[in-house]
From TrEMBL:
It comes from Blepharisma stoltei. InterPro entries: Kinesin-like_fam, Kinesin_motor_dom, Kinesin_motor_dom_sf, P-loop_NTPase. PROSITE patterns: KINESIN_MOTOR_2. The lineage of its organism: Eukaryota, Sar, Alveolata, Ciliophora, Postciliodesmatophora. This is Kinesin motor domain-containing protein. Keywords: ATP-binding, Coiled coil, Microtubule, Motor protein, Nucleotide-binding.
């Protein structure tokens, strides 16, 4: 549970229909047997917070973004406004004006997830009848204040990438062809970023797509990142599967530097200062 006090990202990568959404969200989010990672982690967070023996003040907020054909959509807002990515010197790239909803219990969070699931842009292709044609970023942020005034913050990103099928294989036309091209484009930008990071290149092309800009911290920064690779066992997909595994191998070479997001209480800082003063005195 790194995200109690640090940042983490879990993302699923693989071809269409290989089970990325199944892994992330599951079959039914309310079913203990078939629910995916997001409902399980949500349950774990609230269970742990309730189990805690000391008085912890906490808040939990979530936001959900969809990247569809290189434009960002806030899935928690009905405004339909096109969101923009901005840079902040401290927190890096962020989505301006994104709705963040505070939730107080697991049930509330599950209801939000259920609502959003029904809103997702879904279209059918020859490869997967109910195929999600967009990337989805689900962000949970937990802030805690302990009885001794220590503050901890953890952010966890769940990223369900769209399928990476080749345009000619999916047999799509018109708007769906446009979708497939955009998905291929952002995934190839992701691949370029991974290549640059794993070969320790001087320049990392994060700014080439919305997806890589938003993943910048998760890929090369202060996040503990886990990639889940989904493969289709059908022998006809062997070439795509090999490419997917090669991608995963390159991702493994990337080393991130994760720092704990802990702000000690003023009393704890005074104690550290006193100890250091004593040390200086004894050295003198
Ligand atoms: N382990 C599994 N057990 C049972 N059913 C599964 C499993 N994995 C995937 N499925 C089923 O296979 C189908 C395709 O899975 P899913 O939609 O998760 O693929 P995907 O990789 O997310 O596709 P896309 O790229 O289009 O989003 C779904 O009907 C899903 O319920």
């Amino acid at each position: 549970m790194i995200f109690w006090q640090a940042n983490g990202t879990i993302f699923t990568y693989g071809q269409t229909g290989s089970g990325k959404s199944y892994t992330m969200m599951g079959l039914y989010i309310y079913d203990p047997e078939t629910k995916g990672i997001i409902p399980r982690v949500s349950n774990l967070i609230f269970t742990k917070l309730q189990e805690s023996t000391c008085e912890i003040e906490y808040s939990l907020k979530c936001s959900i973004i969809e990247i569809y054909k290189e434009s960002l959509r806030d899935l928690l807002s009905d405004s339909g406004v096109r969101l923009k990515i901005k840079e902040d010197p401290k927190k890096g790239a962020f989505v301006q004006g994104l709705e963040e909803v505070y939730v107080v219990c697991e049930e509330e969070l599950m209801n939000i997830i259920a609502l959003v699931e029904s809103k997702r842009t879904v279209a059918s292709t020859k490869l997967n009848e109910v195929s999600s044609r967009s990337h989805q970023l689900f962000v949970l942020e937990v802030n805690q204040k302990l009885p001794d005034d220590t503050e901890k913050r953890g952010i966890v990103n769940f990223i369900d990438l769209a399928g990476s099928e080749k345009v000619k294989e999916s047999g799509v036309t018109g708007n769906k062809l446009e979708e497939a091209k955009n998905i291929n484009l952002s995934l190839s930008c992701l691949s370029n970023v991974i290549n640059a990071l794993s070969s320790k290149a001087d320049f990392i092309p994060y700014r080439d797509s919305k997806l890589t800009r938003l993943l910048q911290e998760s890929l090369g920064g202060n996040y503990k990142t886990t990639l889940i690779v989904n493969c289709n066992p059908d022998p006809r997909n062997v070439e795509v599967t090999i490419n997917t595994l090669k991608f995963a191998q390159r991702v493994k070479n990337i080393k991130n530097n994760v720092k704990l997001n802990i702000k000690k209480s003023p009393a704890a800082y005074s104690q550290i200062i006193n100890e250091l003063r004593h040390k200086i005195q004894s050295l003198k």
